[in-house]
Design a protein that fits this description.
Elements lengths: L1 H21 L5 H14 L9 H18 L5 H17 L7 H12 L9 H18 L7 H11 L5 H17 L1 H4 L4 H9 L6 H16 L6 H11 L5 H17 L3 H16 L4 H21 L1 H9 L17 H21 L5 H18 L7 H11 L5 H17 L2 H14 L3 H13 L2 H4 L3 H9 L1 H4 L4 H18 L7 H14 L3 H17 L6 H13 L13 H13 L2 H4 L1 H11 L6 H16 L12 H12 L9 H20 L4 H6 L1 H10 L6 H18 L5 H14 L5 H15 L8 H18 L5 H14 L4 H11 L7 H16 L1
Helix pairs in contact: 1-2, 1-3, 2-4, 3-4, 4-6, 5-6, 5-7, 6-8, 7-8, 7-10, 8-11, 10-11, 11-13, 12-14, 13-14, 13-15, 14-15, 14-17, 14-18, 15-17, 17-18, 17-19, 18-20, 19-22, 20-22, 21-22, 22-26, 24-27, 26-27, 26-28, 27-28, 27-29, 27-30, 29-30, 32-34, 33-35, 34-35, 35-38, 38-40, 39-40, ...
Length: 834
Amino acid sequence: MADGVQTQASEVLQSIARHINSLSENSKMTRRRALEGIQKETFGRKPELDSGVLEEVFSDTFKHLLKIVSDPVEKCRELGISLIREYFTFVQGSLSNLPYLMPVLVQRLGQQEIVEPSEEIRLQLVEICTLLVEKSKKKIAPYLDDMIKILIRTLMDPYPEVKKESCKCSIILAETIPEHFHMQSESLIKPLLQNIIHQHSKVRVSVIEAIGAVIQNGNNKSVEDVVSHFAQRMFDQSPQVRKAVTLVVGNWCLHLLDRYSFFPKLIPLLLTSVTDELPEIREMADSFWHDTGIKYYKENEEELKDKEDFAQPDPAHYPSGVERPNLGCRTLIYRHLSKILPALIRDMGDWVVATRIKSAQLMTTLIVNAEDCMTQHMAVLLPGLHKACSDEEKEVVKNVGRAAELVGYFVEPEVWCKLVLGAIKSSPGYGQLMVLANIIRGSQRELLKPKLEDICSVLSHPDTCRTVQTEVQSQLLSCVLSISQVCQEDCPPHGQQLFTVLVTLLALTNDDSIRSQMRAVLDILAKTHGLSSGQDLYSLYTKPLLDTFQDNYAMWNNFSVERAIFDALLVESGPVVGELLEDVIPIMVANLNPEKDPEIRLKFFSLLSRLMLNAAGTLDSQQRFGDFAVTVVKDMVIPNCVWKAGRIASAVRKTAVSCLWALLKSGVLPKEKVVTVMEEVLTQVVSTLDDDDKSTRLITCRVLMHLFNLLGTSIDQDRLHNISPELIKRLDDSSDDIRVAVSKTFLSMLDCFEKPYNVDLYRAHLEFMFKGLLVHLDDPEANIQEAVLEVLMKAASLQPAMLVKEIESVKHKHRTPKYCDALIEHIQTNLAAT
């Protein structure tokens, strides 16, 4: 057999002898053909040569091939390296030539500068390195230094494929001789980390896998160096990269020799993957974490046995849709939380958005695993949550809210109440209130009940609820909503405080969505009282809230929050206002005092007018407003109709007159009540006919018309005759609308004259009125002429002959006799009829 191998090897050597000699020729084509000839006569031969024959052939030939590795011609190098690779792949005894090959590989790959210019050939050489490690196994140990020297350079190679193959080689080397490799492993960490942000995701994946194997089988201290880089890869856009990190970290948590030292660094990385957007990664991380907990328990079974034996059953009050972590996982978090939490809170405030999102997500997972051991860390946790609630990124805020809710599940109110409420008292901001709302949402009703008084007192305190910031208002609403939903029938004893918060928000907000949300929360709160709607709460709590204003309502100014609350309370309470007139009217009288700031009087008149527009459903809901109507007119309206200089004073007069108009129009002011203040009202109203503001004059005309219609002949006749010159004067108004309104007012006033009319006593007044009206019968505007004609036709009944005489005296002066003739004809027709 041996003779046969020897004979066959001699034949092959004889056939390639000439080719071997040609490898030293200067001609590149000669060398190339020689290499091709060697390949054909050895590995390309049919049938294939026996491994023993090839070993015999290359025992003499191999050294010649090594020279070709440095050939100046790329194709020759490629053919030579290909032969070497086939040699180590198929020939069993090839490792005997390893001492000759390694220096060549180091020379071509392990230098400071790149010696081999061809990327493809560098890749082939690295693949040979991988092959050598796979083939030689433990025998590669003597060449570890050479391999490390090569890998340090090839990992930094510009060609991505070389990088990936170098990573593969590193993994195999680490796993093949771990007992020797650990002394050199740190040398590879730096070049590997320099590639962890490579633009190709496949390179990043290879690098991460290589780091995993290098540290697993090498010096575990390198974990410190790579953790921060792995943390950054958690934000990688490529799911495969994140999966690779999860796989490596998960394996470290399970198998790393020194894992106990690095749990505080590794646990956050693994738990971050539990909330990854990709289900596959989430499931993988969750499985690793579960297995880590199980293994930790088994390794510490004696220590944890008592804890398990006397452990309480799974809590009944537990977040829905969340699977409780095993005892090992919970214990791991308990022991390392003090190291993990501060860093995590710091990352929640990082300038990079993605970091803040991941950190907030991790916080929720951490709290689920920490459970009640989070109690001792509340002083550290809460400020971090408060700050993160104000994040611009909605996803961060959402996860922080969820984290706060989980705190409610696991930390008793006895603990968190003091800290959370203290923070709100110190600074009642958006974050503090959002955290409170979410903690309450997660709390257990029975445990929360004893603390409700403290919570509601802080929420209803003026420093807390009297805010104009929409964001803070929304969180105050959330707090009341959470209390209503969690505490349910426990709410009524604190209903007044919660009602005060809601009405205050309604008074101070400018946001329609807050208003609609407030009314919805009010309905929910009402149901906790056994009432059908939020409107019913006004019957219970409006009076006590009004009582809180008794000491200071006389001192209110335009900026007083109490005034805004009073305004909102009366508008929203509807029919309840009619039950509380004894409380409401004195407050309005005090704030409509003419000595008060004009702006606050404007607001109170505006409120009064709004209520009067629906008097039956507000002020007069109990048919008692008539008892207070005289007070409203005498003490609120009339004093504010007195003329004062200035635009604001003018606006006050207008609103006062408007309020009087609304009061008369509503019908709640009966004739017998008006008669008692008739003189004061007419005096002041007539004075506003000359007001500078057009709207005031127009509304005054309507008020007079309504008064004339209401009082009729009850008005003193002398007073009537004194009013008519003022109306005549208004027919010269710059506004045609007012002139038409004055004409209609005249018509109403004429009905107030007693019948029969005392012509002898009031002849001079009547003549003045006829002459004044006849002047405007010749007005350039046809609509004014028509209006005045209607007035004169009605006034003619007082003394027809006198009017005819006056018409005849001015008829020739008019532009057209049309209206005069029509008036005379009307008078004659009426006389004939009588």
